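Chapter review: from sequence to fold.
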Amino acid sequence: LSSTTIQHQLDTIHTRWALEDTAIPSLAESIHRLQSAQSLLQAEADAATAEIHALQTALTESKSRERRLERAIRKLFAENERLRDRLAKRRQKSKAFVKNVKDAVGNMKVPVLKRRDSESAPNNDDGVVVVDGAEISKDATTAVVNQIKRHESALK
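The token string follows.
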């Protein structure tokens, strides 16, 4: 029986008989309050059920997103490790290269640049330098010396 049917039957009985002297009117009032409370509780339960469903959906989506983010973090961490290793190897190679260049420059014999003697060169301003018997233009030797200086400053 539905609550409206029961209420209708109680109202019918109440109008036919004089129930004011009995406990039935207070019982009917209690039934009304219980029905009202039940309706409120049902509405709250429906709202709570909808909220639970929405929260479960959000939780599922959050867990899925968390798994994707964890995979991405693992990939980024692995890539970071690879890049650190590559950087360390490049630094070692660079240090070794700098050391080798310094050693090579230190072991290198720097040729003494001399001008041709005035007997063989009638004009001293011709821009030619003799290095170990070979004639090299002054511009070329200046360029090489400048380049060596730049390399040495870059190595520091």
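Two observations follow directly from the output. The first helix runs from residue 3 to 16. Strands lie at 128-131, 134-137.
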